[in-house]
User: What shape does this take?
Amino acid sequence: MSYAKDVLAMVKAKNPGEGEFLQAVEEVMESLEPVMEKHPEFKKAKILERIVEPERVIMFRVPWIDDKGEPQINRGFRIQFNSAIGPYKGGLRLHPSVNLGILKFLAFEQVFKNSLTTLPMGGGKGGCDFDPKGKSDNEVMRFCQSFMTELSRHIGQFTDVPAGDIGVGGREIGFMYGQYKRIRNEVVGVLTGKGLNWGGSLIRPEATGYGAVYFAEEMLKTRADSFKGKICVVSGSGNVAQYTVEKLNQLGAKAVTLSDSSGFIHDPDGIDADKLDFVMELKNVKRGRISDYSMKYKNAKYYDGQKPWSIKCDAAFPSATQNEIDADDAGTLLKNGCYVIAEGANMPTVPAGVKKFLEAKILYAPGKAANAGGVATSGLEMTQNSERLSWTREEVDTRLHMIMQSIHESCAKAAKDYGQPGNYVVGANIAGFMKVAGAMMDQGLI
Ligand code: NDP
Assistant: This one.
């Protein structure tokens, strides 16, 4: 067996039951096989054995009181995976499905993604199996305060800087930041995604969605193509999905679907700026369901319990959650003529689906490249916090755009250098790995 395969077998034996983590490691190890042949020094230093093992895993009890006065107990986590190139950085997820394996997969992906951004950020991820759905603002606040009471011991502006992810937006970051400040008596940029009046950055809410579209635009340019008139299918209806639709509209494309965990809506007329305002109010303020869209806009149809991949499109932007495109969905997208996929979500396509996309030689951007704009702009928020300055919208957006172009270029170059031009999966994994591995070699056996 090859070195990468040996390490994968070891990871499988050591981490039973962590399906998503094993899936993420397997994809990276496959990409790295040719790198290991070229660089025997990595094997000698046991870089792969080290890169698959988190530097630190923190798991803790989160007790809080609900509105009825009943005690509730959740399980919180922070995975500090790799700090070779900078402080740990990565979001916090609040969702009932959260467990160790899911957060380890997200933290592992984050190591390579953060490396691609060109900014000095290590990889981490955290969260809790708390379900914010149906909870009052006061319940969410009490939960966030309890969660941060423990987390505050382990994070810091120079150590680990969390951000949002599924279930964590401006409201939750606010409650957590307030509690951190109260406990540590420090006004510092320890979280990103903050409100604009207390250290946040313009364009951070938009960044992941905008970034995914910028990346897809770069892929289209390699075929002298653009978004003008393209029909786009988007899943999810949260932060990433909303700003993906906004940027698609700005570039002349037509986004026709949005979804949530209950079903999806198809609006053949396109989700224009006014309709998107309705969605933002519905999801971010009223915290309602996407099915309400079809009650308001009569040409739109709601499909209960289904995902949007059967809708004919040129481009697809999975922006909800992991493994939301299975092998059949991938086949349906291809059959219907879809030839651009940019993953706003993390690992939304199962391995058999990825294989289909790669074999079809479409423009396929894996999450760790396509959705890196979010963490990149978090990095820009950290820079502004350190400078005690705020940049303009234009300045942040220009930098985000340049970062996405640079990520595209480094993925394309790595893929070409290793004999697989156009394969952004291999390109992202190799380009992300080389920088982290180099830093680990320089810093000795730690
Ligand atoms: P939000 O919580 O804002 O929105 C999540 C959306 O996905 C909601 O519409 C939600 O529906 C849906 N969803 C969540 N879980 C499931 C599920 N198990 N099955 C079906 N639908 C689901 O999260 P974000 O938009 O921030 O995150 C979306 C994806 O993007 C995630 O994979 C995240 O890791 C990734 N990402 C986010 C970044 C960011 O900056 N926010 C950065 C990089 C990646 P419902 O309301 O019914 O739960």
